[in-house]
Specification:
heterodimer; A: alpha+beta; 5-stranded antiparallel sheet; 15 helices; 27% helix; globular; B: 338 residues; mainly alpha; MetI-like fold; 77% helix
């Protein structure tokens, strides 16, 4: 066995070459202009500005201006240096050693050293500070040691494959920040190392960043090195899609994210604007079928649901070609573990749906044409949280409802519920179907959340499966660092979950959109994790 | 959906209680004491009702705070300990009351900030918006009523306009105003609480529907007043019709309109939610809705106290306005009762 060690020169340069066309855009060869201010209209206001505690995918593009991580990712899933110059994993897979840069300082003037990084890890392990996050990947850290000023050693209690992604992606805060009364709320007092620092936050209105002139430690695959181009960048919170669009077309903001399907046409092929979209990583918007309650306890009914709905047609008619149909337990953007062979291996088959339902005993019909068994109607309740009801999902669910009725005599009842009701129903298993999607790439961790038993880390196990084979596979995958082996295990799980057990019906792949005025250059998506990138590489054409 | 209708539960006790006290006692000191007493009673009732109703609403606080993240006994214990949720409910209630009496409103469960700071930072934008919206509403109501009362054609035009405004969802009205005056004509900026010009459109979006409601009531009052014998008397002095309406008619017509306005202004707070999110403005409306949905008790209770205060103040103001508008009420409260 060899020690894995990243070779700085080779990997970095290759990544740079691979990343270049994707980022700044091949359309321009002009020299970037320094200076200017940019205003970006965003949909979501961060709940807290502390990057450790904020779990919102949509807050990342804002917080990444001020807070940085040990390693950055490349489009092909590799790692390149950022705050750490180098890393190594021991042969037994339980000791991670990070070598830090020696020229990095926090916004509050403190120097970045191994002790500061170690403090971040030990603090995060305290439930009183980080709540649920303490139960995540940091829970595997048994010891965080600053061997010397530059060398950080993390010891794990057991091999945990997704750990590198988690550790490399942890935002590092200055040690002084942990003593601040504002620690949990975040804000200007909580110092990071990023190319911008938070200047002013007006709740409900905007957050403004100012350039960090001392910045000189961009990740190896960034579009440039040295300080950021912009003097200031302001993110204005505009929750309504139509208002963001209008603000951009009338020149009141320079960039927006979250463009509705109907408005995309305004910016596409319009020389005054640029428009780009990227499929989300994570899981598709999927109908998860409850295996512990009602008709969907029967695997035949679940398989019938998958066969009764013509997903292709529904997606095309609801989104007019602006959204992509999903097939798997992960989205195709998840380049680590998405197994493409699932595509086309199941699908719309009304004959099969009706045969399965007949076999399951739902063979008679009531006056309205719905199937019944022992006088009871075949009825499944979809519980959709209002908090995640976006992207015309209500229209989509209505189309699914109509298809189920028409093709198989299956009655789908739609319930849109508030956060409290949703939490109660989710915890108690009082639902037939919960539809949802997750939007971040966490090196397969989301599979664990979806398919482990609920009391063993399956916090969003909506199908409520406790199949012992799944737990065994997931355990095996987590304890190997062999990426090929992990891929095969997740692929087997995918076939088991969708083809054999029909735990869920994937509908579509959510995506992120960015529209910008044509004079804004260097705006784009993060490599690999596919969320909109911060403002470091952005510059304004004179 | 119209969230405006949901929050009008508090004003009823506020007005009823205060009126009750006012009518039973005589003399200024007694009136003031009664007023303060009833105010405190309303505040206490608002806190208690909010506390109970948040606990009755589905979903327990710890589960909501954890959401769909990892849940372990240690995490739950840490959250309970941090917010004092491990104590029995009556103890939580009493300790909250004690802390509030000492001026400590606690920290937001969700936003993690001091509630007093949070509310203070959001109250000014809200007050600006409500004041501006009220101004728009009153001007609209006055102009529409004075110009159209008792005249067939203007009356039906104003009536149709008012009906349209009242029945237009405020979300839609906001977008429409933005589309016209901000995106197309570029007269006013979209968002934020940054300058006076940024206040114009939100104030119109919030104020016009309110003005339409008040306008209808005011017009009816004005028409009734103009038919009364005193109007004939004033006309016989040779006073112009316009002066008659402004100086004499309005005073008579104002009583019901003032009551209605006082009552509606309180509802502006919750009506502001939609306007705030359309225009990307800071303000209490959005903070409140998010706090209620997330069962963020300290924020909900602080807003309940604040709204109760607003209602008590408004009901006092309305009573004072009554006295100013209608001299018959001034002489003695005993006569007013009779």
């Amino acid at each position: 066995m060899i020690t894995r060690r990243m070779l700085l020169g080779g990997a970095g340069a290759a990544a740079l070459a691979a990343a270049a066309p994707g980022r700044a855009g091949a359309q321009t060869k002009e020299a970037p202009v320094k200076g200017g201010s940019l205003t970006w209209g965003v949909e979501t206001e961060p709940g807290t500005l502390n990057p450790h505690l904020n779990g919102q995918a949509k807050a990342k593009l804002i917080l990444r201006n001020a807070y940085e991580t040990l390693l950055a990712r490349t489009p092909d899933g590799g790692y390149v240096p950022w705050l750490a110059k180098d890393y190594a994993i021991s042969e037994d897979g339980r000791t991670y050693t990070f070598t830090l840069r020696d020229d990095v300082s926090f916004h509050d003037g403190e120097k970045l050293d191994a002790a500061a990084v170690a403090l971040n890890f030990t603090k995060l392990k305290e439930p009183a500070y980080s709540g649920s996050i303490s139960a995540g990947h940091v829970s595997h850290v048994s010891e965080a040691l600053a061997v010397d000023a530059r060398t950080l050693v993390l010891k794990l209690s057991r091999v945990y494959a997704p750990f590198l992604d988690g550790a490399a992606g942890l935002e590092i805060l200055s040690p002084k920040s942990f003593a601040s009364p504002q620690l949990k709320a975040g804000g200007p007092d909580i110092a990071g190392t990023g190319p911008f620092r938070i200047e002013r936050y007006v709740k409900g209105q905007e957050i403004r960043f100012v350039r960090n002139a001392a910045y000189n430690w961009a990740p190896a695959n960034a579009g440039h090195q040295g300080p950021a181009y912009l003097d200031r960048v302001t993110y204005r919170f505009l929750p309504e899609a139509a208002v963001r669009t209008g603000a951009l077309t009338s020149g009141q903001v320079d960039v927006i994210e979250g463009v509705s399907g109907n408005d995309a046409g305004l910016f596409k092929d319009n020389p005054e604007f640029t428009y780009q979209s990227a499929l989300n990583t994570g899981t598709p918007y999927t109908l998860y079928l409850n295996v512990t309650l009602g008709p969907t306890e029967d695997v035949r009914v679940r398989q019938a649901v998958l066969a009764a709905i013509d997903v292709e047609r529904v997606i095309r008619s609801v989104y007019r070609g602006e959204r992509q149909r999903a097939w798997g337990i992960l989205t195709p953007a998840d380049t680590d573990f998405y197994d493409r062979s699932i595509e086309g291996s199941y699908g719309f088959d009304p004959k099969r749906a009706n045969r399965l339902l007949d076999e399951a005993g739902w063979s008679s019909r009531d006056a309205e044409g719905f199937r019944t068994r022992n006088g009871q109607r075949l009825s499944v309740e979809i519980v959709q949280s209002q908090a995640t009801l976006r992207d015309q999902r209500d229209v989509l669910l209505q189309a699914v409802q109509a298809q189920a009725r028409q093709n198989a005599g299956l009655d789908i009842v739609l319930r849109y519920v508030d956060a409290g009701t949703y939490t109660t129903r989710q915890n108690d298993g009082q639902y037939g179907i919960i539809p949802n999607s997750t939007t971040t790439q966490e090196n397969g961790v989301t599979i664990y959340f979806h398919y482990l038993p609920r009391n063993k880390g399956g916090s969003i196990n909506y199908s409520r499966t406790e199949a012992p084979e799944i737990s065994a596979w997931l355990d095996e995958a987590a304890s190997t660092l062999d990426a090929k082996k992990r891929f095969d295990i997740y692929a087997r799980l995918q076939r088991f979950a969708l083809l054999e057990q029909a735990y869920g019906l994937p509908l579509y792949v959510p995506d992120d959109q960015i529209a910008a005025s044509a004079r804004v250059k260097g705006v784009g998506f993060r490599p690999f994790k596919r969320l909109p990138e911060n403002a470091y590489d952005i510059w304004l054409q004179a | 959906m119209d969230s405006r209708n949901t929050s009008v539960a508090t004003p009823v006790p506020a007005f009823a209680v205060s009126r009750l006290f006012r009518l039973r006692r005589n003399g200024l000191t007694a009136q003031i004491a009664g007023r303060i007493g009833s105010g405190l009673l309303v505040l206490w009732a608002a806190v208690t009702l909010s506390f109970v109703s948040v606990h009755l609403a589905p979903g327990d606080i710890v589960s909501l705070l954890i959401g769909e993240q990892l849940r372990t006994p240690e995490v739950e214990a840490a959250i309970r300990a941090e917010w004092g949720l491990d104590e029995p409910l009556p103890a939580q209630y009493l300790s909250y009351l004690t802390r509030v009496l000492h001026g400590d409103f606690g920290r937001s469960y969700i936003l993690q900030t001091e509630v007093s700071q949070l509310v203070l930072s959001q109250i000014l934008p809200t007050l600006k918006l409500t004041a501006a919206a009220l101004f728009v509403a009153i001007v609209f109501a006055l102009v529409s009523a004075v110009l159209s009362a008792g005249r067939r054609v203007p009356r039906s035009i104003a009536g149709a306009l008012e009906l349209t405004l009242v029945s237009t969802p405020s979300f839609w009205l906001g977008i429409l105003l933005l589309y016209l005056f901000s995106f197309t004509l570029k007269l006013f900026p979209v968002s934020g609480d940054r300058s006076f010009s940024a206040l114009v459109l939100p104030a119109l979006a919030l104020g016009l529907p309110l003005g339409a409601v008040i306008g209808q009531v005011l017009r009816q009052g004005l028409e009734r007043a103009l038919e009364e014998p005193f109007a004939l008397t004033v006309r016989s002095w040779g006073t112009s019709e316009f002066v008659l309406r402004l100086r004499h008619g309005l005073r008579h017509a104002a009583l019901p309109a003032v009551t209605l306005t006082g009552w509606l202004v309180g509802s502006l707070l919750s009506g502001a939610v939609i306007t705030e999110s359309v225009f990307g403005r800071p303000g209490l409306g959005r903070v409140t809705v998010e706090a209620v949905l997330g069962h963020d008790m300290p924020v909900v209770l602080a807003v309940a106290i604040l709204s109760a205060l607003v209602y008590v103040t408004l009901s006092t103001l309305v009573d004072v306005l009554y006295l100013w508008l209608d001299p018959r009420l001034r002489s003695d409260s005993r006569e007013a009762v009779r």
